[in-house]
Amino acid sequence: MTDHGGERKNTANNAQAHPVTSKCTQICGNLKTFSGKSCAKTILVNVYPEGAHQKAIRVYAIIDDQSNASLARSEIFNQFDIQGEELPYTLSSCAGSIQTHGRRTGGIVLESLDGSRKLNIPSLLECADIPDMRNEIPTPDVANCHAHLKDIAGQIPSLDDGADILLLVGRDVTDAHHVLDQRIGPPNSPYAQKLPLGWVIIGETCLGKVHMPNIVNANKTYILRDGRESHFKPCPSEINVMQAHDTHFRCKVVPNDTFGTSVFVKTKDDEKLGLSVEDKQFLDIMDSELHRDSQGHWVAPLPFRIPRSPLPNNKSQAINRAMMLDRSLKKNLKKQEHFMTFMEKVINNNHAEIAPPLQDEEECWYLPIFGVYHSKKPDQIRAVFDSSAQFEGVSLNNTQQH
After folding, report:
1. Of 187, 209, 231, which closes a domain?
2. Residues 199 and 60 in one domain
3. Is the predicted pLDDT of residue 140 greater than 60, yes or no?
4. CA angle, residues 22, 25, 31, in degrees to nearest 5
5. What is the pTM of this model?
6. Is 143 in a helix, a strand, or coil?
């Protein structure tokens, strides 16, 4: 049995395992509470309506690239006497989605404390759900207690008890998120970033990691949007704002649907194949160029792909194929007779004509020809124009829509 019921003795070595210094209380708080501190991108700025610098007030703004819109508490709208119609919108986060409403305004200016940088917020929505975690605001004490951050301590303002967290600057104000400089220290230590509006410190700041926070701020909550709990991580820590412009739209109600509505409504056309991109291009070509000539014949264009490479001149191939056909027909006079009869009909019916003379370097393509008999019509041959014949790796078929 060990002494003291198994508790470790308070030896000098044990006391040094987790040293608690008065210096650390500057960061984490009173020694009796050990509240800990974790810093976020929260920065002290001046804010005012465009063209009215004399109305500027000092507030804290959260720089949050996980939000698609910039938000402000009601105090901002009331301070600057911003009126206007309240707009409905959907506020989505990992905790779920809520339907809410608020005023919207533009023309609000953010200014760094030294006045060196000004950023316009194009659209600002009134929102009461902006996080208000003042213990996450970076201070000079945090920087002074970490060797790699000491040189920026003078550029971080002391905690301003008169300034509230009233703004959340989303990624719609892109310039606010630019990183102009940074300070990175040992592994798992806090780091700093210089943003256009000033320096911020991010991360756990406790010296030696001995103080555990007694408040946990979890921006990622395992609750799905329909209210169900989940053991799986549902989504990144995002805030999404969707304004209700099309309030007339409603999903069609489907009987026996678990949630009462469904976008995926089944219809009798569900199994029909849709047109491909090439199908649509082919139909467009036919619609615009298919026509009837002066003799009443329908004339269709070649449905070339767009874009396509020019066709090579395959005259040598066509001549070789013609000579092969000629030798074949001379060996079989019956086949020759059938072939000549077929071609005579093609010419007499004006289904073919003599090609016009070619200009120098003019694009052209010659179609080889061969004959095919039908199994049930041994006395009739059909001449096939071979558009699949390849020359230099190219055929007429692979330059056209199918």
Report:
1. 209
2. yes
3. yes
4. 85
5. 0.48
6. helix
